[in-house]
Amino acid sequence: MKGPGMFSLTLGRFLRHRLAVGSAGVVMVLALAAIAAPAIEAALGVGAETVDLFNRFAAPTAAHPLGTDDLGRDVLARLLYGGRVSLFVGITAALAAAAIGTVIGLASGYYGGRLDAVLMRITDAIIALPLLPLLIVLAALDLEKLGLPEALVTSENVSLYRIVAIVAVVGWTTVARLVRSAALALRERPFVLAAHAQGAGALRVMAVHILPNLASPIVVATTLSAGNVILLESVLSFLGLGIQPPIPSWGNLLTNAQELIWSAPALAFYPGILIFITVIAFNFLGDGLQDALDPKAIERAR
Questions:
Q1: Which of the four, 2, 30, 37, 48, has the lowest number of CB atoms within 10 Å?
Q2: Rounded to whole angstroms, how far apart are CA atoms 150 and 148?
Q3: Cβ-contact 229, 93 below 8 angstroms
Q4: Would you state the torsion angle of the CA atoms of residues 241, 246, 249, 252, taken in this order, to the nearest 10 degrees?
């Protein structure tokens, strides 16, 4: 009698991890709410950037479910648009860093030798750097002096692109080390040796035979890093070096609220609690995926 498939075993193990399932639901709800921000904004008849100085610090009402800020703008609409930016930065930067780390780790583990030594020493050097001070320095660089196109430098979204690029450039090391260690073991497996014997080239072996078997550590590392990226973006935005107004993000919403912490504490509470919930949810989701995708546990279940 044929046993359950790997997907069914993995899904079953994940569904038994209640915190991970709940966290996946939280992330999905936040993502859907952020995507639906324009529709919610239209339904309420408000605007995230609409200033109403006669309605500053208004209490929650049907028109403004979370009240208004110091300029009379709807707090809920700004939180939804801020979630769009923060989630986009977190997920995009995590995926970009995972792609870079996968390429470097795969090449290092498959080829070994001098290439492995050079790539791993570069990885160690980046790991040894103090992350937050490095991010602050990179975020403060004058883009005009780097020779970038003027259209990009003057773009309203340049701060968003900068954060994604910075995090991707320095955040690939964990994935690279995980992929390298797995590739070192896989390159000696019989199915890889058989592919070589049939005349498959190095790129085909890596892409077709090794990379699919690395999905588990890559997915887990990417999920865990997404929460960390959101936290880093919030820290940089809080320091004034991240996403710049008028683009709202949870980090700069928290920054703008720090001077009003005594008169309007809710303006700091809302973005702060959303950052906390999102980071915790991504961490629990990563833990659940790690348990569910554990090959030893799947093999025992079969």
A1: 2
A2: 6
A3: yes
A4: 50
Is the pLDDT at 95 greater than 50, yes or no?
yes
Question: Going by C-beta distance under 8 Å and a sequence separation of 6 or more, which residues neighbour residue 108?
Answer: 115, 116, 119, 120, 176, 180, 183
Question: Cα separation of 288 and 234, whole Å?
Answer: 25
Task: Choose among 273, 240, 261: nearest CA to 83.
Answer: 273
In a domain, 1, yes or no: no
pLDDT at 29 over 90: yes
167 within a domain of the structure (yes/no): yes
Q: What is the pLDDT of residues 245-287, one digit of tens each?
A: 778 888 888 888 888 888 888 888 999 999 999 999 998 888 8
In a domain, 50, yes or no: no
Cα(221)–Cα(225) distance, integer angstroms:
6
Q: What contacts 2, CB < 8 A, 6 or more positions away?
A: none
CATH assignment of the domain containing 170: 1.10.3720.10
Beta strands in 185-288 (DSSP E): none
Which tokens belong to 60?
A: 């929650």
Query: What is the residue range of 87's domain?
Result: 6-43+66-301
For residue 282, being part of any structural domain is answered with yes
